[in-house]
Write a structure and sequence with these properties.
- The chain has helices spanning 25-37, 52-64, 78-88, 104-111, 115-132, 148-160, 177-190, 210-219, 242-251, 253-256, 267-278, 299-307, 335-344, 352-368, 374-382, 430-442, 487-504, and strands spanning 3-4, 6-9, 42-46, 69-75, 94-101, 136-141, 165-170, 198-203, 225-228, 258-259, 393-401, 409-416, 419-426, 447-455, 465-473, 476-484.
- The chain is of the alpha/beta class and 513 residues long.
- Strands 2-3-4-5-6-7-8-9 form an 8-stranded parallel β-barrel, surrounded by 8 helices. Strands 11-12-13 form a 3-stranded antiparallel sheet.
- α1 packs parallel to α2, α7 runs parallel beside α8 and α11 packs parallel to α15.
- The protein binds 3-methyl-2-oxobutanoic acid and zinc ion.
- Residues 14, 99, 139, 141, 169, 171, 202, 204, 511 line the site of 3-methyl-2-oxobutanoic acid.
Length: 513
């Protein structure tokens, strides 16, 4: 019988550590519900002790999700562990995930602790966590760059204290597949009580090998849990990508001989939801979920695929959710059809009032755009004006004038709390003029790190433009996303959405800080 490979998704924790990817509680809940539909085994919902906001997110997700285990990260100290346990309390199935650095570099420079102190702390923290939870994961941070002898001592001790999963992070993405696989195998062979825990891999993608390293950890090392994120989201070059690992194991079952519980038909919807929520767009040639992943441009390939699909395709597009990505609604669609589509997309609105607001937006959009795709619906639901979370800044109206040979000019009307502002400015183009108008009134001084426009659905200029704006202010980086058929309006929405995130002042302790 084939072993099961446990899929541990950390989009909401490690993924969220990407610059500007922080999500609101509603956004995280929406993604968590979709992860549950995807049948992910474990969802790392956040790092409860890092901020009150994260605590509330973990708590809400632990209460809402029944079919996946909900996990909170915690540093190896009593306060963090107690906070994690408190946030998870009452959840159907929960896990505390402890981490403590074990590499010489991290222990000396970051923790300023001796190896003996780290050893003792790892043991005590695991004991404390085990008294609060029957499911405890221990991660030696920067494990792959740690001294193997020391790592063996620490891991043997934490297993003896009751750790049920041992995760070996390649925190900085330094590993090479064969070496990482052998590293895990070596640990499992040398540690006498290794068989008392499930072994897990957690790889970062700095050298572009996170997926390959994770799979080597499974095949060579014998790990049976992979930690990954949707779209490979994560700090720097990101984490191991869930969709790539899952499709590799499924497509090459002949080689891996492992079962995964994932319902792969949900992959694409979730990829889009994560991209639209965080503003981290998926590159067109990204495996599995990129716009070109199943597109055959060359004549020879097209001809081959038409004659027999498996000449050039190793996976079926519909198996990862592409076939369902068709025109779904239009101008004549009613409220019930709209509500059903929200349900199919796994989107739960908090109240009938929210559904009504979303439906009104849908009708407005359908008047301007004949075909409404799933991506349009996701973007529409994320529009801050339809969610219950009342945002501080809201776009009310925008007009702009641009003409060849003239300097563009924009007038923007927006709300800031109870106040209504009218702002005007010139700019290099209509987008520049609109954002300058907002800034001239608010004087935030935020620095723009990124501005990008993307068509939400491919194929025509009728598509909505989706704009991502990344702002930096006071040491914080946030992404704002806005969608509209008019890209100037989308830009203003994205700018205000980023300002809302700065305004919300979410503060958290960095997991690897
Ligand atoms: O990359 C890493 O080391 C981590 C740990 C906190 C598990 O994300
Ligand atoms: Zn990580």
């Amino acid at each position: 019988m084939a072993d099961k490979l446990i899929i541990f998704d950390t989009t909401l924790r490690d993924g969220e550590q990407s610059p500007g990817a922080s999500m609101t509680k509603d956004e995280k809940l929406r993604i968590a519900r979709q992860l549950e539909r995807l049948k992910v085994d474990v969802i790392e919902a956040g790092f409860a002790a890092s901020s009150n906001g994260d605590f509330e997110c973990v708590k809400a997700i632990a209460h809402a999700i029944k079919d996946s285990t909900i996990c909170s990260l915690a540093r190896a100290n009593d306060r963090d562990i107690s906070r994690a346990a408190e946030a998870l309390h009452g959840g159907a199935s929960t896990r505390i995930h402890l981490f403590l650095a074990t590499s010489a570099l991290h222990m000396e420079k970051k923790l300023r602790m001796t190896p003996e102190q780290v050893f003792e702390q790892a043991k005590l923290a695991t004991r404390f966590a085990r008294n609060l939870s029957g499911d405890v994961e221990f991660s030696p941070e920067d494990g792959y760059r740690s001294d193997p002898d020391f790592l063996c001592r620490v891991l043997e001790a934490v297993i003896a204290e009751g750790a049920t999963t041992i995760n070996v992070p390649d925190t900085v993405g330094y590993a090479i597949p064969e070496l990482y696989g052998k590293f895990i195998l070596d640990l499992r062979t040398r540690i006498p009580n290794a068989d008392k825990a499930i072994w897990s891999v957690h790889c970062h993608n700095d050298l572009g090998m996170a997926v390959a390293n994770s799979l080597a950890g499974v095949t060579i090392g014998g790990a049976r849990q992979v930690e990954c994120t949707i779209n490979g989201l994560g700090e720097r070059a990101g984490n191991c990508s869930l969709e790539e690992v899952v499709m590799a194991v499924k497509t090459r079952r002949d080689y891996f001989n492992l079962d995964v519980a994932i319902d792969t038909t949900q992959i694409l919807a979730l990829s889009r939801l994560v991209a639209q929520t965080t503003g981290f767009v998926v590159q067109p040639n990204k495996a599995v979920v990129g716009a070109n992943a199943f597109a055959h441009a060359s004549g020879i390939h097209q001809d081959g695929v038409l004659k027999a699909r498996d000449t050039y395709e190793i996976m079926r597009a519909e198996d990862v959710g592409w076939a369902t990505n068709k025109i779904v609604l239009g101008k004549l669609s009613g409220r019930n059809a709209f509500k059903q589509r929200l349900k199919d997309l796994g989107i739960e609105m908090a109240s009938e009032a929210e559904i009504n607001a979303a439906f009104a937006k849908f009708k407005e959009l359908a008047d301007r755009k004949s075909d409404i795709f799933d991506e349009d619906i996701v973007a529409l639901v994320m529009d801050e004006s339809v969610t219950a979370e009342h945002e501080h800044y809201r776009l009310l109206a925008l007009s702009q004038h641009s003409e060849t040979g003239e300097r563009p000019h924009a007038t923007v009307v927006f709300a800031a709390g109870e106040l209504e502002h009218h702002a005007e400015s010139d700019g290099n183009g209509p987008v520049d003029a609109s954002l300058k108008a907002i800034e001239s009134r608010l004087q935030t001084g935020a620095e723009m790190l990124l501005y990008s426009v993307n068509a939400i659905t491919s194929g025509s200029t009728e598509s909505q433009g989706e704009v991502t704006v990344r702002l930096q202010h006071g040491g914080r980086v946030v992404n704002g996303v806005g969608a509209d058929p008019d890209i100037v309006v989308a830009s203003a929405k994205a700018y205000l959405s980023a300002l809302n995130k700065l305004h919300s002042k979410i503060e958290r302790v960095a997991a690897q800080g």
